[in-house]
Amino acid sequence: MSTRKRIAVAGGTGLVGAKVVARLEAAGHDTVALTRRTGVDLTTGDGLEEALRGVDAVVDCTSLESTKPAETTAFFRAVATNLQQAGTAVGVRRIVTLSIVGIDGLGGAPFGHYDGKRAQEEATEAGQVPTAILRATQFHGFAGQLIDWMAKGPVLACPKQPVQTVDVDAVADELVALAVEETTEQRVRVDVAGPEKRMLADLARAIAEARGRRLWVLRVWLPGATARKVRAGALQASADTKIIGGTFDEWLAREYPTR
Hints:
9 helices, alpha/beta, Rossmann fold, 11 strands, two-stranded parallel ribbon, 7-stranded parallel beta sheet
C-alpha cells in the first residue's frame, strides 16, 4: 500500500465522490470533506484554506444540475479557482479533476454543462498547484438519470446519441490512483471510456426494462452544431483513450440483480 496520505474530496457526497472517499478510506488514507456542512463554501472560498491545511491532494468531483452555460461556467470556474488559490497557499501537492471526454468545441443550451466543465479545466490548469484532469465518458447509469429527468408518463424523448459509457466504479479507481501517486508532472490529462459503443436509446430501454417500467423510448434529433457533433460520436473514445471497467450489461446485472 502507498504511504498514508490526507486527501480532500470536493463533491464527496455525490455519486462519484462518495465512491472515491470509500476507496481512499479502505486503503488507509485520511479524507477531508469539502462541504458547507464542514464549514467550506467552494463557490466563495470561505473556510477552504483552513480545510486544506495538511492535505496532500484534492479530488474535485463537484457537479451542478444545470444546462445554462453562464450558470455552469460561473460555478465550475469559481470552484476550480478557489481550490487552486487555497491549495497554493497551504502547499497542496496535486489537484485531480473529473471532467468529460470530447467536450472541446461543444456547448450552449441544452449542452451548457460542457461549457462549465471546460471552464473548470482551464481554471484548474491556470493555477500553480500541479493538476491531473481525468476525462471520462458518460456513466453506465446515465440513461437511467435521463429517464428520471425527462420521461413523461410512459414516454421518453431520448436524443439520438451514440455513447461509450463507463462503469463509475472504474472511474473512481482512476481518480484515487491519480490522487495518491507520486509524480513531479505539472499537468496530466487522461481520457477513459468503457469497452463498448452503443446507442443511448438502447441503454434507456434496457434500464427501463430492468426497473420493470413500461417505457416507449422515442429517438429525437436535437438541433444545432453541438448536437450534430454528438451524433457523430464526439462523446465516444478517441484512439488514445484508456479503456476501463466492464460492459453496460455487466453493470446492469450488478445494479439490478433481481430483474
